[in-house]
Amino acid sequence: MDLLRFACAFFSGGLLFLSGSLIQGVSFNEISGPSTLGLNAACVLAIVFVQGLFHIFGIELSLEWSSLGIMFLVTILFYFGVYQSVGEGPVVGNGKEIEMKNILIFGLCFNLFVGAIFSVMQFFFINLNMEFPAGLWFGNFKFIPPYALFFMPGSFFVIYLISIKISKSLQIMSFGSGLAGGIGLPIKKVIAGSVALSLLCSAIVTCFFGVFAFLGILFPLLVRNFGSMKYDLRKEILYGPLIGGLIIALLDLSCANYTAWGAEIPVGMLSSLVGSILFMIVLVSRGKSL
Predict the structure, then answer these.
(1) What CA–CA distance (Å, rounded) separates 250 from 285?
(2) Is the confidence at residue 92, as pLDDT, over 70?
(3) How many other C-beta atoms lie within 10 A of the C-beta of residue 80?
């Protein structure tokens, strides 16, 4: 079971890395990620929604699979929505495209909105003596379903291979939309596909293990400090998920073996604390602001 837990943490870390790297690659903004854009919050909202429906109608189905099914449909709709809303250039740039600053502000507001909904539903669930996923905001790998042995590596490698293929197009787009369009690159499909894959990565991890805030932003930033990956998005997506997966797996291993007063600290809680501090340090050191 320890080996299964290590594997699930590793593949989850890889998916979190891909989620952040794809969003940052398509937006050309290093502070964009599943946390700041509200992707994690969307997954939480889906889980709470499904949990409420199950209690109201007495449905006995897997909460994880049901929530992931909803998020899969949302991902498809998200793809077509993004495809229709963006132009034939990168998301940021000459002022005619969607400004990333506005998207980040919307994402942060959406996070606050979901947090408020989460609190209200928790209040009603507790007063009605119904089970509520209170620990959802702090992901952990303490409880691993048996099917995760097949689902996590399978989903990771499928998304990983697709991301590697997309990374070639993102690398070309980084030189300008004019060059990319001139060689016939389907820019709208690349943007929509990258955003949809990022949402799907967050959905898989969140629906099964909870929220791991800031890791999707920090992992790509940290990996870019290694040699040529700073300037090569293809290498970043090729090697980065393996590094991100190993980091979260080792971090979870530490949480499992070194408890606090007999209780295991959720790795998502630790990553949120450390991640938020590192994120502020990155912002200050790079002189970035919203």
Answers:
(1) 27
(2) no
(3) 11
Determine the Cα–Cα distance for residues 287 and 248; give it in Å rounded to an integer: 27
Tokens (6 digits) for 58? 């007495």
**Quick one: DSSP state of residue 22?**
H
Identity of the residue numbered 181: G
SS3 260: strand
Tell me the residue type at 213: A
- Which position has the higher pLDDT, 207 or 63? 207
> Residue 84 is inside which H or E element, if any?
helix 63-85
Residue in the block written with tokens 């408890």: 259
Residue 86 corresponds to which tokens in the numbers above?
A: 């963006």
**Each residue of 169-203: pLDDT tens digit?**
888 887 776 677 778 788 888 888 998 999 999 99
Mean pLDDT of the residues in the chain:
83
In order of start, what are the domains of the chain with their CATH numbers?
A: 2-286 (1.10.3470.10)
Higher pLDDT, 121 or 167: 167
Q: Supply the pLDDT for residue 287.
A: 61
Torsion, Cα of 231, 286, 269, 100 (10° steps): -70
**Residue 260 β-bridge partners:** 263
Q: Stretch 260-270: mean pLDDT, rounded?
A: 83
Least confident of 47-56, 263-272, 278-287: 278-287
pLDDT > 70? residue 1: no
Q: Could you tell me if residue 95 is left (phi over 0), alpha (psi between -120 and 50 degrees) or otherwise beta?
A: left
Please, are residues 2 and 17 in contact by the beta-carbon 8 Å criterion?
Answer: no
Which residues are CB-neighbours of 192 under 8 A, at least 6 positions away? 79, 80, 82, 83, 86
What 3-state DSSP class applies to 37? coil
- Name the 3-class secondary structure at 263: strand
